[in-house]
Amino acid sequence: MKKVVLMLVLFLLLMPGAAFAHTHLESSLPADGEEVTTELTEVQLTFEGPIEQLSTVEVVSENGDKVELASTEVEGNVLTGTTSAPFANGNYTANWTIIGEDGHEVTGSVAFTVNAPETAPEADTPPAEENNEDTPVSNEDQGTEEPAADSSTEAPAGEAAENTAETAQPETASGFNNTALWIGIVAAIVIAGVYVAMRKRGKK
In the predicted model, is pLDDT for residue 165 greater than 80? Predict the structure, then answer.
């Protein structure tokens, strides 16, 4: 009977030591129950002692959806899970499973909330600015059209030359008619004179 009691006493003395020999969570970022108001891209868990590389962490949303982690790293006593994109606003739980130095598997969880201000999307360039940029091009186009205006002003000059030639032709024709008229008058006078002279000779 004494042996049984002694064994029970030794068992009760050794149980707390065995329990305390397990590696427990020391701190976390975010902390359990914390509300994060800035952009968050990782969950970091720090334990009381070194942990094995087989340790893992899984983050789920309040709807039970698993958050995809880009990487999970174990360095000494720190377990870090990193996401490829910032956490969306909402409630999350990080469930971790580690293997301590004693080889025992220990599990736990950390709950936190993300309530970061949402960034406004960049405003598009107003169409008015694009129209202003196109204005110099239209001015240049107007500048290239100026020679066309000069060619249009040359057209009346050519027409005036043709009109001058046309008006000159009637003047030449009228001058020729006047000359023929005078020649006819002189010829008539000469013929009349010859006729009168011949009649006078006939009377003699």
Answer: no
